[in-house]
Amino acid sequence: MADFDQVSTIVSAIYAATTVEISITSRRVLARHAEIDPGIATSFEQSSLTSACIEKLREQAVASDSVDLASLSLLLVIFVAERDDRSAPPTTNTAFNIAALLPSVLPASGELAIPFARDHLQNVDSSDSTCWYLFTSVFAISYPTQCIDALKVLASSLTGEGLARCSHLLAILTKQGESTKKASSTYVSCVFDKLAPVFESRLKGLGYEVPKRVSDLVQHRVSIVSNPCIIDLGCGTGLVGELLVPLIREKSLTFSCLSADYRDNAIKINHLHNSIRELLEADPDGKDKDFAEARLENEKLVERLLGEAKIMKEKIDSTQILDMYDFDNAPRGSLFGVDLSKEMVKLANTKHCYTSVAHADCDDFLKAQADSSADVVVSADTYIYMGDIETSLKESTRVLKQGGYLVFSVELVPDDTRDGYLLLPSGRYGQSKAYVKRLAEKFAFEEDHVEDIVVRKEQGEDILGCIYVLSK
């Protein structure tokens, strides 16, 4: 919520842009604020209000109730309602701050803020996340008709990200969700590019267990597969990928020795090869070795891996013992990620759990894969932005080896939903169980596992969904 000084600035800006006569009601409200903030009075003295008028308002303010932010916002509402000249867009600060302030401090004023939010997106910044949040979470819910009218105006003038956001919200409000097959690539990428830095922190407290549950179901079925190939559709920041790493890496071996101040001069090996296991097989922890043997073993290990592993070797003091730690395991399979958001891809790469991460559309990525090349295809909370998942299931069955698995989650909608999927008020898609079953049968999948879950909590309410394991 804005503080009084911020609101005062907005009041002054609105008045400066207003040429209409101020009503008695407006003056009464103004008087209350002029009494506690001489700066506002000064601003009006420099405009059409005379000093005598200001003084009269001061007298009225003495008998007024205490000033609060809600009453000040009422002043903004009055000014907006009385303003009759909409031929020129308001100033940047005026449009943005009115749109953001009014619904937060005085919900009933939201309808009057819509034109200012529209002007800001149309004339200043069409990608402004705060304004789009107001349209999605305030205007669309409380003033759907006025919101639709404003969005239609925006749709005729915006391009790129702004148009993508506008079109997606219009599809929700105009009940066209059943005929909208998927969110546009532009919409998904722009939303998650902005969300990426705070994506994981926002999931805390939402009871979000989909990655863990999907990972458990995959590991239970693939742990005995030699050199598995796994594809993670819509991998995001790598929440599923980091849990699947044990399936594609050799068991970790650690070689540690007691020493003084070794942490500042340690050798870090980023990629271990089978030679590590052979060298340390007899005594992987090195606990029984004396100083000389331990140092010799470490030096031999470094020498053997210089040409094979990525090693950071700092100068080692002759009185210290080397320490090997933070080993990445030798790969025995592959894990490929793909995501539409370039910022999500960057974060996924920092976790070093994927063989590679592609910045691409999930369906396009699958189409580029060879027949019978993967053991598992995973889609954890990705289909909620795809709606029509027929292409994804079709390509998955082609890419999967015989006996492979498609593991995915969906948000549920009723079985009588016309097309089997629906764009929900949340902006996400839901699929029905009947729709998934129909597609599974069409592409010769067997329902290996179907599990009802709470996908997440939203405003304290459980969002119901389902996790599927389909086998080929």
From TrEMBL:
<dbReference type="InterPro" id="IPR013216">
    <property type="entry name" value="Methyltransf_11"/>
</dbReference>
<dbReference type="GO" id="GO:0008757">
    <property type="term" value="F:S-adenosylmethionine-dependent methyltransferase activity"/>
</dbReference>
<protein>
    <recommendedName>
        <fullName>Methyltransferase type 11 domain-containing protein</fullName>
    </recommendedName>
</protein>
<dbReference type="Pfam" id="PF08241">
    <property type="entry name" value="Methyltransf_11"/>
</dbReference>
<feature type="domain" description="Methyltransferase type 11">
    <location>
        <begin position="333"/>
        <end position="408"/>
    </location>
</feature>
<dbReference type="InterPro" id="IPR029063">
    <property type="entry name" value="SAM-dependent_MTases_sf"/>
</dbReference>
